[in-house]
Amino acid sequence: MGSRFSRREVLGLGLGAAAIGAYSLAGAATNSEQAQVKNNDQPAGTAEINKRNAEDLERVLILRTSPVAVKMVSKEEEIPKDAVRPKKDRGYHLTQCQAVSMSRRDKVTLAMLKEDNWCPTAVMAYGLVEKPASVNQWSHPYDSFEYGKYIGIVTAPLSRADFVPDVVLVYAKPAQLRGLLLSLKISDVPEVSHHFFPPSCGWSVVNPIKEGKYYIVLPDPGEYQRALTDEGDLIFSIPKVKMAEMMAGIRQNEHGPFSYRDHQMFMETDFPLPDFYKEMFKNWGMDTE
Q1: Rounded percentage of the chain residues whose pLDDT exceeds 90
Q2: Maximal CA-CA distance, the chain
Q3: What is the pTM of this model?
Q4: Which of 7, 18, 218, 284 is deepest in the core (most CB within 10 A)?
Q5: Alpha-carbon radius of gyration of the chain
Q6: CB atoms within 10 A of CB 1
Q7: Distance between CA atoms of residues 54 and 146, nearest Å
Q8: Residue by residue, what is the 3-state secondary structure of 130-150?
Q9: How far apart are CA 42 and CA 199, in angstroms?
């Protein structure tokens, strides 16, 4: 696209400076961040990278709750030492949406294994149990991980996670989500998928990990009823393979024209036109004053 349109022409088409700037971000991520994305182990500096990413997301988007780092675990040795096991450590069960809410609101690291769960959907979606044949009769369809591949899921506030997240969940208002989306490279737009039906615990985790795509997910009723999710929130899932580029775009466009933090609303008729607006309006026979 950059070879066909000038910067001014692209702005005139309404794509904006943030989109143009983000278009060339493929190589903008630091070497350490790229190494993190490609490595399933915990490379040196993982905690520092996570903390910086969390601080930047929270600052630029003015988030009310922490971005959540999510890791699927296949053996107990992969569970962080500081992780709370709800049934074992506290004597109660949680739904997965409650666990995510505790991680983002209370800054708690939790490990949810089969015995910790109090909702059937998550254990089926994550492959902790086999899906019964009858599930499609009472549930919206959803993908699952292979049965037996994982024993559980770990969630933690991104700022305190010492592991490489398989996916990062950002609970955001529509305007904050817009700030995230307009930080993407134009070439990454097809990499954004969405799903607006239950279960959100499945679609926000399973599909981004399996497909390597960003996902916009509507929190399902259970999130509102049991996990205190705000009515205006949407979930934006950033898979591991996209995290470095997402953060590069956020940082480059922090003070761009589509930055959420710097946006100010105003209602002014006949506001002063930028010069390139005037040129385009003249070409179309429109008023410029």
Answers
A1: 73
A2: 73
A3: 0.80
A4: 18
A5: 21
A6: 12
A7: 30
A8: CCCCCHHHHCCCCCCCCCCCC
A9: 30
Asked if residues 99 and 201 have their Cβ atoms less than 8 Å apart, the reply is no
Gap between the Cα atoms of 37 and 52, Å rounded: 15
Confidence at residue 141, expressed as pLDDT on a 0 to 100 scale = 84
Q: CA–CA separation, 213 vs 263, rounded Å?
A: 27
Q: Which H, E and C letters describe the chain, residue by residue?
A: CCCCCCHHHHHHCCCHHHHHHHHCHHHCCCHHHHHHHHCCCCCCCHHHHHHHHHHHHHHHHCCCCCCEEEEEECCHHHCCCCCECHHHHHCCCECHHHHHHHHHHHCCCEEEEHHHECCHHHHHHCCCCCCCCCHHHHCCCCCCCCCCCCCEEEEEEHHHCCCCCCEEEEEECHHHHHHHHCCCCHHHHHHEEEECCCCHHHHCCHHHHHHCCEEEECCCHHHHHHHCCCCCCEEEEEEHHHHHHHHHHHHHCCCCCCCCCCCCCCCCCCCCCCHHHHHHHHHCCCCCC
Q: Averaged over 81-88, what is the pLDDT?
A: 98
For residues 114 and 119, what is the distance between their CA atoms, to the nearest angstrom? Answer: 10
Q: What is the mean pLDDT of residues 137-166?
A: 94
The phi and psi torsions of 191 (rounded to 5 degrees) equal: -85, 5
Q: Which residues are 192's β-sheet partners?
A: 214
Pull the structure tokens for residue 97: 């949406």
What are the angstrom distances between the C-alpha of 272 and each of 35, 47, 169, 231?
47, 47, 40, 37
